[in-house]
Design a protein that fits this description.
Blueprint lengths: L6 H9 L7 H8 L3 H14 L17 E9 L4 H9 L4 E6 L6 E7 L5 H8 L6 E8 L13
Antiparallel strand pairs: 1-3, 1-4, 2-3
Length: about 150
């Protein structure tokens, strides 16, 4: 990636939390001009270190659920498997981690894309999968996801 956020970038991101805060308001709070805030946001967007997106509470959408899934992968296939998992239908995000799993993913399900369908159709696309463990989200006041289904 190469781009590192500095203190001014981080201050700007803090005020972009809801994605609708005007740049002029952010500028006043972080001590920069409106144009500087706009340029910094555009630069972070261009470099791929920032996305301004909408989020949804999956529990608030009829028939939807979400889960954290930990994957154990054949050691020499972790990077390739990570890319494959990230591309699966329903996957909101996937990262390589330390600990008992090699990869953790957040996955969204609904009536048409069920957990069973994910197991039977999507996971067949992952090379080197040894095992997995699923943790269904059952609540949380701040649990929101990018809608991917």
């Amino acid at each position: 990636m190469g781009y590192k956020l500095d203190k001014a970038d981080i201050d700007i991101v803090r005020y972009l939390w809801d994605g609708r805060t005007p740049y002029s308001e952010i500028a006043g709070k972080v001590g920069l001009t409106t144009n500087t805030v706009r340029n910094r946001v555009n630069n972070m967007l261009e470099k791929g270190v920032l996305q301004i997106i909408s989020l949804v509470d999956p529990g608030a959408v009829e028939g939807h659920s979400s889960a954290f899934i930990g994957f154990k992968i054949v050691p020499q296939k972790v990077i390739k498997a990570g890319d494959q998992i990230a591309a699966l239908k329903g996957v909101v995000g996937a990262v390589t981690v330390t600990g008992r799993f090699d990869i953790m993913a957040v996955v969204m399900f609904n009536d048409k894309h069920s957990f069973t369908r994910f197991l039977n159709e999507e996971l067949q696309k992952v090379d080197g999968l040894l095992s997995m463990e699923t943790f269904f989200a059952v609540g949380g006041k701040t649990w929101q996801l990018r809608y991917v289904l």
